[in-house]
Design goal:
By secondary structure, the chain is mainly α. It has a domain at 62-290 and 394-410. It is built from 22 helices and two strands. Strands 1-2 form a two-stranded antiparallel ribbon. A hairpin with a 5-residue loop joins strand 1 and strand 2 (280-281).
Length: 448
């Protein structure tokens, strides 16, 4: 019965996904309903209620929430600085077209996603700008979208400020810098193979006259935001060097507040200011507030999992996995892959899947003396592989909505069906089997 709160959440979330509304706000209500159902069916309502309060103070959830708030503020500053438009400008100066433009989109989307730490934000920004521009420059529309999704997954997988990186490290009780360093080999292999595939299959036929293409690119290309790559690089290198994550984010934020006004990218008031009606606004505020829903959902899911732990279900599940699947290190890693894969199939937001299964993976890796970097990498790489290809993934649905908006603005834009774009999401297609091979062969394995 202790599984009921989480089971109610998963079933309700699947219903939201099927209905086309996989909003985090709806998932929050689903999690609340699940916990309430558990309370109604508990033997001691008062004790159950007090346990809910104490479980909310779980350190894993607290670390993730604090990190998200800092990361949200920083990524909000970068996203509002015109970094996407600056990358478009860079593409025009390099005279890219067709397959070469598709490869450039993949690389620039990956760079942007690593900078701001959000796969969904990358998909939204690049689909609105790069998709129509790429079509007019002769790129294959389906491959172009695949490049955007793949770049977003790459950055989501690697960025120190990505929510998946934060959660994977927090749930395995380890440091973010070490996790990112140990993950580089998987990410670079999958990214390199993806770039080659985009170069081979990314070309197409120009949809409109080249002169019109130049005009459209000129409307969006703007190099003003290029200096903001500096604070993004500072966060990445400080985090990877082993410094504390909050120190890295603080260093990046300070650098952004210096670089932005110094190079004329934005006035300091755009980051934080008091409005005429007495409220506080700005890109830093917007970025931090935007992550509050996922913070609340994390607290609720950690509570649901804690109920299962206190009731003894997790102990029984671990015993079953030890007997049937996790008979050795390889089996334990396969069990982690199976758990996170199933969670991602049930939930359209990969971070939620990791929050749900992270404690299970942590218990398994401790029992079999698997290094926390290894289990964190399994959680994160799997969550950034095939989940980006699922038809009900948040990124897929966001891109589809943007394509429909673009159709009304540009006569040459087409809405690409999921069945056509999915085969081109090369990063996700390559990364999943790569990690299965890593588990079977022991590539990158460390003992805890």
């Amino acid at each position: 019965m202790s599984v009921l709160p989480l089971a109610v959440f998963i079933v309700a979330t699947m219903g939201l996904v099927i209905s086309g509304a996989p909003a985090v706000e709806g998932m929050i209500i689903a999690a609340m309903v699940g916990i309430s159902v558990g309370m109604i069916l508990s033997r001691n309502v008062a004790a159950y209620s007090e346990k809910v309060f104490s479980l909310m103070a779980n350190r894993i959830a607290t670390v993730a929430v604090v990190a998200w708030l800092w990361a949200g503020a920083f990524s909000g500053i970068l996203a509002d600085s015109g970094l996407v438009e600056a990358i478009v400008w860079l593409g025009t100066k390099l005279h890219l077209s067709g397959a070469s433009f598709t490869v450039a989109v993949f690389i620039s989307a990956a760079l942007f996603a690593v900078s701001v730490g959000t796969g969904l934000g990358t998909v939204v920004g690049f689909t609105a700008v790069m998709y129509p521009a790429g079509i007019v420059l002769g790129a294959n529309p389906a491959a172009l979208l695949g490049a955007i999704f793949s770049g977003a997954a790459f950055g989501d997988n690697l960025a120190p400020i990505s929510d998946t990186t934060i959660v994977s490290a927090a749930t395995q009780e380890t440091d973010i810098g070490g996790v990112v360093r140990s993950r580089l080999k998987y990410v670079l292999i999958a990214g390199g193979i993806s770039a080659i595939l985009f170069l081979i299959f990314g070309g197409g036929r120009a949809a409109i006259d080249p002169a019109e293409a130049e005009r459209l690119m000129a409307e969006t290309a703007d190099p003003t935001g290029l200096p903001m790559l500096i604070p993004a690089a500072i966060v990445f290198f400080v985090a990877v060097s082993g410094r504390h994550f909050l120190a890295a984010l603080t260093a990046g934020a300070v650098a952004a507040l210096i670089v932005g006004p110094l190079f004329g990218v934005f006035p300091i008031e755009r980051v934080l200011h008091i409005t005429a009606d007495g409220s506080v606004a700005g890109s830093a505020v917007d970025g931090a507030i935007a992550l509050l829903p996922i913070c609340i959902l994390t607290l609720l899911l950690v509570t649901s999992i804690g109920i299962m732990v206190d009731a003894g279900f997790m102990e029984k599940l671990m015993a079953w996995l030890d007997r049937k699947v996790a008979r050795g290190v390889r089996g334990a890693e396969m069990a982690i892959v199976a758990l996170i894969s199933f969670a991602n199939l049930c939930v359209s937001v990969n971070t939620v899947a990791m929050v749900t299964t992270g404690p299970l993976a942590n218990e398994l890796r401790k029992r079999h003396k698997i290094h926390p970097y290894r289990s964190a990498n399994l959680l994160d790489t799997i969550s950034c592989s095939f989940p980006y290809i699922l038809p009900y993934a948040a990124t897929i649905m966001a891109a589809n909505a943007i394509q429909r908006e673009l159709v009304e603005r540009y006569s040459f834009v087409v809405v690409v069906p999921w069945a056509q774009e999915a085969p081109y999401i090369f990063y996700g297609i390559v990364l999943f089997p790569l990690m299965i091979i890593a588990v079977i062969t022991g590539f990158g394995r460390k003992k805890g």
